[in-house]
TrEMBL record:
Keywords: Methyltransferase, Transferase. One of its GO terms (biological process) is RNA processing. GO terms for molecular function: RNA binding; RNA methyltransferase activity. Gene3D superfamilies: 3.40.1280.10. InterPro entries: Alpha/beta_knot_MTases, rRNA_Methyltransferase, SpoU_MeTrfase, tRNA_m1G_MTases_N. This is RNA methyltransferase. Signal peptide: none annotated. The lineage of its organism: Bacteria, Bacillati, Actinomycetota, Actinomycetes, Nakamurellales.
Length: 211
């Protein structure tokens, strides 16, 4: 509290009942902050020349959204975009699931998915759509050098996947290979596999160029 006062931040003490009403958790931490949401746009994010971007399309689960932000941060991605009818990245559950990563990298929205592919392609990004109906699997993409390029990964909702027109408009449709008997992977797991595959390819590429 002394540090907040010293920084010129307004501090108001409230009762436990009021604190509980201000929070959506069962056992609030006792501190609530009122913050301004960053106003970065997708165009500004893409103008910075990113090499790895995660794009959540119509993803409506805040927990999954926050986990993917955390994964993108861990994999060294440059940004996360929320496209179409996607959950608010500043939903309290998404913020908690990101465990701070929401504040480490730019997060922006693209409300109209029609604008998405031109924006990504115009930024020089190779657009890869994750879908079961794929033209290549992730192993083939790695071996073929597809992942060496600056990349935007498109991830759809767990319930419906990516819209067909969006998947068809991507540069490649990529499937995560399943070697066992599981029917599928959840969104966060698929995102982790894909983002880290790109991160490895990019790090290897930089090493090859420097040598």
């Amino acid at each position: 509290m002394r540090a907040a006062y010293a920084a010129g931040i307004e501090v108001t003490e409230v009762t436990e009942r009021a604190a509980a009403a201000l929070s959506d958790t069962v056992h609030p931490q006792g501190l609530v902050a009122r913050c301004t949401v960053p106003g970065v746009t997708a165009a500004e994010v893409l103008a910075a020349g990113p090499r790895l971007v995660a794009v959540l399309v119509d993803t409506n689960d805040p927990g999954n959204a926050g986990v993917v932000i955390r994964l993108a941060d861990a994999a060294g991605a440059d940004a996360v975009l929320f496209a179409g009818d996607a959950v608010d990245p500043y939903n309290p559950k998404a913020v908690r699931a990101s465990t701070g990563s929401l504040f480490h990298l730019p997060v922006a929205r693209v409300p109209d998915v029609v604008e998405l592919l031109p924006l990504l392609s115009g930024a020089g990004l190779s657009v890869l759509a994750t879908t079961g109906a794929a033209t290549v699997d992730l192993d083939e993409a790695q071996d073929g050098g597809v992942l060496d390029l600056p990349t935007a990964w498109l991830f759809g909702s767990e319930a419906h996947g990516l819209p067909a027109d969006l998947a068809d408009g991507a540069d490649e449709r990529v499937a995560v290979p399943i070697y066992g008997r599981a029917e599928s992977l959840n969104l966060a797991t698929a995102a982790a596999v894909c983002l880290y595959a790109s991160a490895r390819a990019h790090r290897g590429r930089r090493g090859a160029l420097s040598s």
